[in-house]
Design brief:
There is one protein chain. It contains four helices and seven strands, in the order αββαβββαβαβ. The chain has 251 residues and is α+β, with helices and mostly antiparallel strands. It has two domains: 73 residues, Type Iii Antifreeze Protein Isoform Hplc 12 (Alpha-Beta Complex), CATH 3.90.1210.10; 133 residues, no CATH class.
Length: 251
Amino acid sequence: MKGMMGVWIALLLGVVGAFCNWFYIAEQARQFEKTEFIQISSNRPLNPGDKFSESDFVPLPVPTFAKGTLEKSAVLYSDRKTAVGLVAPHGFLEGDILMQKDLEQPPPSDVKAKLGPDEVLMIVPIDSRVMVPRLIQADDYVSFVIPNLPPTPTPADVPNAPKPLTNIPSGGVSRRIGPYRVVSMGDRLGTSEKARVVGTGTTQENLMGIAIKIQADGSLDKPGQELSEVFRLTNFNQVQVLLHPAPPKKR
């Protein structure tokens, strides 16, 4: 009996030892187990507006026990395909970790959302030889310096013909009209930098979108009529653009 007891004790100790060995090995394996995140490679410096390519990414192995909340904020290397082709929202250096927030692409802007309920958009051509379009952003205020215009009398034989605006300069010195709120420059509704970051680029920046107020009867208000009349008479040739200082921010 004593011999059998010894055998059973030996077997029990063997099982306990095997379990302890397995637990130790599993614990060591868990400590050496790694999760890979996306790290920016040395392939090239990434500037705002550049599109991610797969060669821009290398795996960053992090021990699983040490990853903390990184898995909830960083992009897994196994998900790198979802980042390829997206636009970098800011500059990246070699070794930077790609975060999930870096993959959030801004929604396309809607020009109508930038107009008030009593506003319409008037597009006027601007001579880019006398201005730098990228210096003008949406929500800036501009005025226009109008050259001398020939008089535009109303034909006497046309009943109820609209009278020409008397405040449009003709035969005298040049005059400033405005200010007007800028809504767009070409297809750009924000800053040049933002357009580059979003990756949309800009086109037709020689066309400026101006917000014009409309009256209760649907007609343009007086500043809008001024602008429309100048456009009709000059096609905005030789019209200079004046950029106003930014209005003070409300506290």
